[in-house]
Amino acid sequence: MARGQQKIQSQAKAAEKLSKMKKQQGHSATDQKKAAQKALVHICVICKAQMPDPKTYKQHFENKHPKNDLPEDLKTI
């Protein structure tokens, strides 16, 4: 059974290990993918590509689909 300084050191080591495990739990790959997917709100009507904002969507549409007419929601941007 540990006593004195050895006990304090082992408790500190265990607490540090526990805090590292908690930090890693909050940043899993699936959580990051879900958060990134929520940010992609604009979907191209032709190719179904997903974009985060209307400006990027407009640039995508002008570059990838130049022969098609611009959708109504992009004409004001």
Automatic annotation (TrEMBL):
Residues 1-12 have a biased composition (Polar residues). Residues 1-34, 57-77 are annotated as: Disordered. Residues 1-40 form the Small EDRK-rich factor-like N-terminal domain. GO terms for cellular component: cytoplasm; nucleus. It is found in: Cytoplasm; Nucleus. This is Similar to CG15715. Keywords: Cytoplasm, Nucleus. It holds the Pfam family SERF-like_N. Its main location: cytoplasm. The keyword Nucleotidyltransferase does not apply.
